[in-house]
Amino acid sequence: MRILITNDDGINAPGLEVLARIAAEVAGPNGEVWTVAPAFEQSGVGHCISYTHPTMIAELSPRRYAAEGSPADCVLAAIGDVMSGNLPDLVLSGVNRGNNSGENVMYSGTIGGAMEAALQGLPAIALSQYMGAETRSLENPFESALVHGPAVVRRLLDKGIWDTDADFRLFYNVNFPPLSAANTRPARVVPQGKRGGVGFGVSPHVAPNGRRFLWISGGPQDVEATPGSDVMANLDGHISVTPMRADLTCHRTLADLAGRLADDAVEA
């Protein structure tokens, strides 16, 4: 198996090294693991692509490249250039330092990399490691992802729904709980949730030279969220698995909205 890995924490991030080990185990002794990752940290860029300027790419070692762009850029670079003659069988994005559960999904470059792969017709899985009090005490805070990641990826490859004939191919968002590998509970298939009262904001600061700057700040990650959601599964110690696709349509309201607006339609 040929696997492409990327992330949003950057080419030198420890989570990418963890993902390389997961990918190598899944690919097997005769497989290949290719890396195309951002040269610098790209956390929070979502599904951004560098549409208005070129992306420089450099080969650091065999099958390992750094690109000056977003995770989605890196996937496009791999497909259109680095691996253009031999596309990957699977794309893995992560392992993110911090969870991509709940509302974090909408901002995540880790998710953006997996989403771009799915839009290009490739199977893709995003992996993230929830951080908390227990992970801070571990020698390797990515321990849960490292130990349990290969089995989760293999099970998704064997049993997952990949929806290859759909307009928007499914991809998967996997989050490992903020616990040691030994305390990690089995995977649950759950929807994306939302934490109550938590969102991003700005924190104004004045630099020594008098210039005003705004820092983007987030909220606490251990608060109650939508019952039965990815956040609650993670806080309960479970690995969360959420099927996703790049379709933001609210399908449940389509028919109702069409009926409401039909009364206002003006005939030609």
TrEMBL record:
InterPro entries: SurE (IPR030048), SurE-like_Pase/nucleotidase (IPR002828), SurE-like_sf (IPR036523). It is an enzyme of class 3 (hydrolase). It is found in: Cytoplasm. Residues 3-195 form the Survival protein SurE-like phosphatase/nucleotidase domain. Its cofactor is a divalent metal cation. Its main location: cytoplasm. It comes from the Bacteria. A divalent metal cation binds at D8, D9, S43, N96. Its EC number is 3.1.3.5. Keywords: Cytoplasm, Hydrolase, Metal-binding, Nucleotide-binding. Binds 1 divalent metal cation per subunit. The keyword ATP-binding does not apply. One of its GO terms (molecular function) is 3'-nucleotidase activity. It catalyses: a ribonucleoside 5'-phosphate + H2O = a ribonucleoside + phosphate. The keyword Hydrolase applies. Belongs to the SurE nucleotidase family. Nucleotidase that shows phosphatase activity on nucleoside 5'-monophosphates. HAMAP family: SurE (MF_00060). This is 5'-nucleotidase SurE. It comes from Paracoccus pacificus. The lineage of its organism: Bacteria, Pseudomonadati, Pseudomonadota, Alphaproteobacteria, Rhodobacterales. The gene is surE.
